[in-house]
């Protein structure tokens, strides 16, 4: 099946995100589908010389998921869904770090 969607057709992808993607060399939905959100976010931060709002990462992840799956569930087409996942992962990582520190302290 041919995918004729444009970047602007993806939910949550507005002019600012399209501009960022273009600066990063991503010009089509097909190109976006092959990207990694963390990598794009890191490149954007390096390119601009400053740390971008972390929600940019969530928007990138959301757009990439949509680019890879035209039938992505509606809930997952919202960038805040991806923010929730990121925050959940951060909590787990923080708890794991805390447990590791406790184990080292008691060994």
Key attributes of the depicted protein:
mainly alpha; 107 residues; 5 helices
Topology:
Layout: H1 15-23, H2 29-33, H3 37-48, H4 55-68, H5 79-106
Helix pairs in contact: 3-4, 4-5
Architecture overview:
- It is a single chain.
- By secondary structure, this protein is mostly helical.
- Helices cover 64% and strands 0% of the residues.
- The protein has one domain.
- The protein starts with 14 loop residues before the first helix and ends with a helix.
Q: Approximately how much helix is present in the residues?
A: 55-70%
Question: For the report, how would you describe the main beta sheet?
Answer: none
User: What structural class is derived from the secondary structure elements?
Assistant: mainly alpha
Number of strands: 0
Task: Tally the structural domains.
Answer: 1
Write down the overall mean pLDDT. Answer: 93
Number of helices: 5
Structure described in brief:
By secondary structure, the protein is mainly alpha-helical. 64% of the residues lie in helices and 0% in strands.
């Amino acid at each position: 099946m041919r995918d004729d969607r444009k970047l602007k057709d993806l939910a949550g992808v507005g002019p600012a995100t399209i501009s960022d993607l273009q600066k990063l060399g991503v010009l089509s939905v097909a190109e976006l589908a092959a990207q990694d959100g963390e990598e794009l976010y890191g490149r954007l931060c390096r390119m601009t010389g400053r740390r971008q709002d972390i929600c940019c990462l969530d928007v990138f992840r959301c757009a990439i998921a949509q680019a890879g799956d035209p039938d992505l569930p509606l809930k997952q087409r919202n960038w805040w869904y991806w923010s929730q996942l990121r925050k959940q992962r951060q909590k787990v990582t923080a708890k794991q770090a805390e447990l590791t520190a406790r184990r080292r302290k008691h060994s």
